[in-house]
User: Fold this.
Amino acid sequence: LRLIGQVCLLLSLVGTGYAAFACVIGWYYGRRGIVRAGIASACVGFVGLTIALILLGYALLVRDFSFLYVSQYSSRLLPWHYSLSALWVGQAGSLLLWAWMLGLLAFVYRILSRKNGSPLRSPAFGLVMGVVCFIVATMVFGADPMQHAPGLRDEGEGLSPLLQHPAMLIHPPIVFLGYSLWAVPCALAISVLLNNRRIAANASHNFIGASSNDSSQHVPTVQALQQPAIGADWLSDARPWALLAWITLGVGILLGAEWSYEELGWGGYWAWDPVENGSLIPWLTGTICLHGMMAWRFLGILKKIALALAITTFGLCNFATFLTRSGIFSSLHAFSQSPIGWMFLGLMIVLAVGGGFLIVRQRSALVPENTIRTIWSREAQILISATALSLMAIVALIGTLSVALSDFIFGRRIVVGTEFYNNVLIPVGLVLLATIALAPLLRWGRNPTTAQLKCMRGSVLFPARWSAQRGFTGSGAHWYLALADLPA
Amino acid sequence: MTTGIKLAVGGFIVAAVTGYMAYQGAASSWQYYLTVDECIAASDNLGESRLRVHGSVVPGSLQIAPDRHTARFEIAGERGKLKVIAPGPIPDNLKEEVEVVVEGRLSDSETLHAEQVLTKCASKYQSQTPPSEPNRFEVSQVENGP
Assistant:
């Protein structure tokens, strides 16, 4: 079984690697045959991954201790559902599950987008396959789930009693799914940037070709060779995926918080632990990304923010993986230390540098179509809330990195306490509260109507009056009531 | 004043207030993160500093009061040990050989007065024996991020 599994993993490595190459290159140069070969190769790679996953799941269920992984995380006394949950407990198993989820999502995306005929189908599919190939490579070269256990074993180490909890069955796979889902908006964002570059290159090539054939043609103008503006079409593909990813990751985080609350000694719902922060930061950037997409769709603004954050959010999902694998952070969670963490950091850097480069190169195609005319418009409130969320993400990132940064700068490991985070939440939370309440009542691109102003006034003054009547007594409440301009 | 300038000024004010609050929070809550051995080695210089010390509970040292409002135990590093006096509530999963993170201050070079005891998420079993021998190897559990 192990041998079959290893062959399947190798097949998957080659299949997904070729698929990534063929789908992107074939699409860029307009070679449909190469794209088709890439898709066939992806099918082979995904089948290999599926077989490998089924084999490991089967080995966990029948307690085949010849697998090192099974002997490490399962035992004969362990109930079958917890034994199966060991699939996402260890490093190799979780990587296998993650790669399989990504592969599945790539095919789901390809099938669902068949009807709309988007030009981004092939490159986005190829890019997600590239990520699958990367994860399979980390397994093949660093964490083989099919590794043979040394010696003959009748019993395994089993699962820690603390992890034998119903949340173990759903919390980790939901977080994995949330991370995986962000790969699709990220791939679409990179694809739309590449697509524009391809269109500009083809237009330029055709224009120059035509000019050289017929000297009577006009000399191409600068405007003609400029990159075409990137439209909002790609958002109809990307936004549903981003929404689903945001919701899934949010549910995963909440489930983790609930589990942490139940275990006395894990710091309650939220302890601002690096691993908790690692999942919160992409959720925050994902929230900004979603709102940026909305502003782009309605007004053609915040384009660079939407694209950059679609790429950054998936990059930060890889940062969370780096956190759990590198061993350089002080966390309440204990994880294995392996070079795999640094490989994920490498992927994150590639995404950041590559994405940044593409956005800078395409900046003329990302010029806003409108300006923010008034602060009392929906887009202005979205921009303010995006600033607040960014600040929260930056603070969480600095706090998470505090041990590594202080060790690097001062030679001493310093951690910041919960006050560091909680202090920041006060101003940021108040700003967010105000913008969340205001934005749905405002219009895109214009000042509010009289009816909207009345509604907002009522929304502020009715609670003020109610609070004044219930919460305060005596003359202290008079100014509130005067503000409300309502009879006391 | 144009809308862009208004938004920039507003953003700057929010960023400045956030930065100031973060600084205040960091100044009042920062702690040294040390292993037991590092803590013992630097105990003369640590004084009243707030510490976060990581170690494992020494077998046979754990004494929990019947009402679970105090506990005394020792935590060990690779070479040394520290006594810990912890207030309640004591975590249910505080047991011998469990990895803990103790937040508190040193009262002398050997005793740590805890303000909080956090147990590590049971994510890693590590054998004391070399990994090359059969049945003895490092076992890692729960890779919470993928």
User: Anything to note?
Assistant: Chain B touches chain A through 54 residues (CB under 8 Å). Helices of chain B lie at 3-29, 36-41, 43-46. The CA atoms of residues 34 and 97 of chain B lie 18 Å apart.
